[in-house]
Amino acid sequence: MTKTLRMRSSSTAPQQRLVAKKKRMRSLIRKDANKDMPGEQKFVVRQTLRAAIRKGLIGSKDERITARLSHALIEQAKRQTGIKGDTELLEFALANIALEDNFPATINKLAGTIDPDIKLGF
Fold this sequence. Notes:
Blueprint: H1 13-32, H2 39-54, H3 71-81, H4 86-98, H5 103-110
Helix pairs in contact: 1-2, 2-4
């Protein structure tokens, strides 16, 4: 029997990185989205992680963080999100902060104002 070896050209390297990134994304989402949690929570966790991956915030693990936290806080956060692992929980929490759109500050700034171009019918 003769085996044929295929040489990989460097032009396929970007494509291979993209495939690997998609596999990591699917793996992360599968790990973090517990099947027992309600659909809405699962959706929020999944979409938050996807957005963080798209923005390049989640990828290689090149930093380490250590913290001492209340057991009750960690367990409640895990119940709320359906995430089982400490690392995944922290990653989700940090992604939430990093992706914050400052909606509350913006809405407070606009409180009591009306666009002058809006016709109110008076």
